[in-house]
Specification:
By secondary structure, the chain is α+β, with helices and mostly antiparallel strands. Helices cover 37% and strands 20% of the residues. The protein is built from six helices and eight strands, in the order αααββββββαβαβα. Helix 1 packs across helix 2 and helix 2 crosses helix 3. It is globular and about 45 Å long. This is L,D-transpeptidase catalytic domain.
């Protein structure tokens, strides 16, 4: 009887371990299938993925910004530069008074977070219009980033970013361009000032969402800052 119980529990443990080991492979298979849809379907493939997103009551990003983010994500994923199947998309073509940051989980096809986000003080007032990779420019930088490690700085819990595009955002770490919370990123600030507050170049977010956002996107996920810029498209090595 004892032997039978031992064998039963050993068998159950094996099944649980096998199921757990299978989950990451299933998730990666789903990503590969989506990448194939994108390659084979072109614009229609992207629209298919876009149309199936579970919004959880949030509004969708613009298709054009989602398209660029998705294409770049797959390239970075194939190169092993990002490991999580998550995209953080920031659309700086939108008013800073609107929620223009999305965290999208490609495993579940769902929008996890939709939030306000600040741009640099020299990038523009309500609308972003000027971008830079230079130190002390106090401007935002466009393009693709990979998220790094968490640290505690003057803004509390913060997340380092590494820019992946030479000449466009590769000075991000040296410039201390990070994700952090700020009290000037809030509906109250907008109400009192007619626009969102601005950072020194960081994609600052509301304090209320900082912990959840950083916890979700830390450790090598893809972050993309979009703007319909011809000069960026011509210079980018990713899109």
């Amino acid at each position: 009887m004892v032997c039978k119980r031992v064998l039963f529990f050993l068998g159950l443990s094996f099944l649980l371990m096998s199921a757990t080991a299978f989950l990451p492979k299933a998730a990666e298979k789903k990503i590969v299938l989506k990448r194939n849809v994108l390659k084979e379907g072109g614009e229609s493939g992207i629209e298919e993925i876009y149309s199936k997103l579970h919004t959880s009551g949030f509004s969708l990003p613009k298709l054009e910004s989602f398209k660029e983010a998705l294409e770049g994500f797959y390239k970075l994923k194939a190169q092993g530069l990002v490991t999580k199947n998550i995209i953080t998309l920031i659309d700086f073509s939108l008013s800073s008074n609107t929620k223009r940051l999305w965290v999208i989980d490609l495993d579940s096809d769902s929008i996890l977070i939709h939030s306000l986000v600040a741009h640099g003080k020299n990038t523009g007032e309500e609308f972003a219009s000027s971008f830079s990779n230079k130190a002390e420019s106090y401007k935002s930088s466009l393009g693709f980033y990979v998220t790094g490690e968490i640290y505690n700085g003057k803004h509390g819990k913060s997340l380092r970013l590494d820019g992946l595009e030479k000449g466009i955002n590769d000075n991000a770490r040296n410039r201390a361009v990070v994700v952090h919370g700020a009290n000037y990123v809030s509906d109250t600030f907008i109400k009192n000032n007619q626009r969102l507050g601005r950072s020194l170049g960081c994609p600052a977010v509301p304090i209320a969402v900082t912990d959840e956002l950083i916890r979700t996107i830390k450790d090598k996920s893809c972050l993309f800052i979009y703007y319909p810029s011809d000069s960026y498209k011509h210079s980018s090595s990713i899109i």
